[in-house]
Specification:
0% strand, Glycerol uptake facilitator protein
Length: 282
């Protein structure tokens, strides 16, 4: 079909080149582009040395302690009312903001980032690289979280009222049987991996994406292996529970749930949608 000037018309209005560029800029990236960006980042993580991963993971464990402090401060200064958690849970996002914007290594982010290269090329060598990354980052995160919690428990910086808030937060995190904590942790792992999926092209909305999703995790009481470990380590530090209780009642179900939520519900499903659209990508 031709228009009045004799030019062919494909049914769409012709736009100047600068407007075509603007249309492309405002078009949301395809899942394949997001997938490729995260997969490339995962491959770069494999190249980092043991010490670089360990120090970054240790810094992240320390930083996550500020989620407990910020939430405790808000809870302490707010009136005891039914709406108090709606405000105090914003404090839970602080540690995540520091870690993610500071590019520190957090274990739950790694249930997506290094998994995509493994799904793309399922080889034993890549699996060993994933396990190496997980082990170093997890141990470093927990070391930083324990040190921060020990500092809170053995310090007079915070008042007795604040210490009581830390105790209440840790006690709440520890509640629930194995299956309850496991399911709760699946939701947390799912949401954190979704955050990683959304961030590459969030641009100026990065801060809001982190706050909204981590606020939902905090408000829902979903268990996160590092943020929750700071809270429960505080109980260990003041002698309220034993380290064995931490391992059995929190660490094992939470770790398993976070891994399931991140890998199964985000990495595998989003990878599957990209693979299914392979013909279009070509």
């Amino acid at each position: 079909m031709e228009n009045r000037t004799g030019e062919k018309n494909d049914g769409q209005a012709r736009l100047p080149e600068n407007e075509i560029h603007e249309v492309r800029r405002r078009t949301a990236p395809r899942a394949a582009i997001v997938h490729e960006a995260i997969r490339h980042e995962g491959e770069l993580e494999f190249q980092r040395s043991h010490s670089a991963l360990a120090w970054s993971g240790f810094a992240a464990g320390l930083s996550m302690g500020f989620s407990l402090v910020a939430e405790g401060l808000l809870q302490h200064h707010l009136p005891d009312a039914p709406w108090r958690p709606l405000v105090s849970k914003f404090g839970y996002s602080i540690g995540f903001l520091i870690v993610i914007l500071g590019r520190q290594q957090l274990f739950t982010e790694n249930t997506l980032t290094p998994i995509l290269p493994l799904l793309q090329t399922p080889r034993v060598g890549i699996l060993l690289q994933v396990l190496r990354l997980w082990l170093i980052v997890l141990l470093a995160n927990l070391s930083g979280a324990y040190l921060f919690a020990w500092g809170l428990a053995d310090s007079s910086v915070f008042s007795a009222g604040m210490q009581r808030e830390f105790l209440l937060l840790g006690t709440h995190t520890l509640q629930g049987d194995f299956s309850t904590v496991l399911i709760s942790a699946i939701y947390a792992g799912w949401l954190i991996a979704l955050t990683v999926w959304l961030l590459p092209f969030a641009e100026t909305a990065r801060v809001m994406v982190i706050i909204i999703i981590t606020y939902l995790i905090g408000l829902g009481g979903f268990r996160h292996i590092i943020a929750g470990s700071v809270e429960v380590f505080y109980l260990v530090g003041i002698g309220a529970i034993s380290f064995a209780t931490y391992l059995q009642n929190f660490f094992l179900p939470t770790l398993l749930g976070n891994i399931i939520g991140g890998i199964t519900l985000v990495a595998v499903i989003n990878h599957a949608q990209v693979v299914a659209g392979g013909d279009q990508r070509k």
